[in-house]
Amino acid sequence: QISDAVYRMVYEQTKAQYDAVMAKCEQERPQMESTIRTDMDQIITSKEHLASKIRAFVLPKAEVCVRNHVQPYISSILEALMTPTSQGFAEVREVFFKEVTDMNMNIVNEGGLEKLVEYMEKLAHLAFHPVKMQSCYEKMDQLKLEGLQQRFDVSSTSVFKQRAQIHMRQQMDDAVYTFKTLLHQEPGKRQGKDDLCKSIQRILERVLKKYDYDSSTVRKKFFREALLQITAPTCKGELAKFQELIFEDFASFILVENTYEEVVLQSVMKDIMQAVKEAAVQRKHNLYRDSMVMHNSDPNLHLLGEGIPIEWGEEYSGQPEAELAADKRRRAKQVVSVIQDDEGVL
């Protein structure tokens, strides 16, 4: 209760500041968009000129650095990152599976449809439940980068732990949302208790297939970003001199540091991509290869996008449900698919 109270206090204060910043951005957007449309060719030319200058300055140093000080350690860094992260995402899958399975058993034992509203409300908050998610989060406590922190000037591993934990929470929230939406679409909502339980089990299996693919994609992206942050050679202290290459009118659109990071990315990304690709072949981390495609998409895909929050109370009990703020968040479109490759269905 203390944790929840603190969270609400911080959220309310930061949300007010965030909303103020977003409002300011929205006010400035029309003028910036007008400038971009008018001067796009000049902006692109200016950025390419800046990138060429930075590239000439950075790449000779970066290539030597990558060859001598990065390539030999990429695999060990990746392994150190992957083991606790993969365990954490596997725990998220297990927690979601257990919660839905327990809900299904309780519906059988405690009165069926009348209990569904109560359980769906609890499930909606699962991703933000500090106790139930703790077993997932604590897997990242195993992340150790001894011997690498000094070599790559990484002051702390906390940023990687926290980012992975945020991804875990988001994947859990996405899984819950997809489950709720598919259950809501299920024909015959007034079906009997046994039929409802069979529907829940069938939908759970579909959502877990989606989770396996999504979590693989999210983890590979996380690994690439973390490797880049750890290994990218740094010489940002010398970037100020490149600012004078940008016309003042374009300073809002062309950022020296972003351009620098793009150049550095080009120098190390090949090795990073290769390391992640090789890691995906190792079944112990449950990463799908990039060659795998998703097809046989759910026919109701378009219904899984952002929409009006589902009123479970009205659907199943005839009683209006209390408004849930979490259900009003903007939602990315969810995809429920079967994953296949040349070897067949996985």
UniProtKB/TrEMBL annotation:
Q: Which InterPro entries match?
A: Niban-like, Niban_1/2/3_dom
> Matching Pfam families, A to Z?
Niban2 (PF26086)
Q: Which family does it belong to?
A: Belongs to the Niban family.
Ranges for domain Niban 1/2/3: 65-233
Protein name from the UniProt record: Niban-like 1
According to its UniProt entry, this protein's organism is Tauraco erythrolophus (Red-crested turaco)
